[in-house]
């Protein structure tokens, strides 16, 4: 029996308040499937979905989901199905899920799927319990099937950061790895150069004792390298550009 989602009180955020700002560079661009007529034009919407889910501007070909892209171009699935497939893909599993804790996954899931930050710690705890009981796939289904998602994005709109007003973009404040994972990577990266490893290497080296051998200069014979006769004639060079003085 699955544990029901714990109750939490929503806090006041920008997306919950009606806004009257003049559109500017901070106004999010909405990618809607109805605005694209052909499959080639849908590429722009597909890349917007990749950027939103993976929070990266460059996606390697290895991580692309060709089957999902083809179905979207043929109008066989909706944009919500595309988002669901990308969030449950093996690429997302290896890049995001395996490198973050449940609390971190709740923050990433809410920001990338619902377009908002967690309300408070109570919401993070409630959804982290959801992940622990039904897994990441169940958490994704709960968000995409929620009334909040459907009322905000519906079936054919790529999720976006709703009403980013005087806030930094989510992809800047929530990179792929959390602080503890980045610190772990840095520790592993610089471990070979640590002072402890240097001491271990120095102690493992066996130093042989060097014995001094006395040498008497009386036994050294210096050969005579002087020439008996002086060279005759003018020096000739193999290089015609060389210029020797004529004596």
What does this structure look like?
The chain has 247 residues and is an all-alpha fold. 44% of the residues lie in helices and 0% in strands. The chain contains ten helices and no strands. Helix 5 (102-114) crosses helix 6. The longest helix has 24 residues, at 121-144. The radius of gyration is 35 Å and the shape is elongated. The N and C termini lie far apart (110 Å).
- Beta fraction of the residues? under 5%
Terminal Cα separation, in Å? 110 Å
Considering DSSP H and I runs of 4 or more, what fraction of the residues is helical? 40-55%
Rounded to an integer, what's the Rg over CA atoms? 35 Å
The tally of strands reads 0
Order of helices and strands: HHHHHHHHHH
* Helix count, DSSP H or I runs of 4 or more residues: 10
Low-confidence sequence ranges: none
Quaternary assembly = single chain
Structural class call reads: mainly alpha
Shape: elongated
Largest sheet: none
- Can you give the mean pLDDT? 81
Q: What does the secondary structure layout of this molecule look like, with pairings?
A:
Blueprint: H1 39-54, H2 66-73, H3 79-87, H4 90-95, H5 102-114, H6 121-144, H7 147-152, H8 170-173, H9 179-190, H10 195-204
Helix pairs in contact: 1-3, 5-6
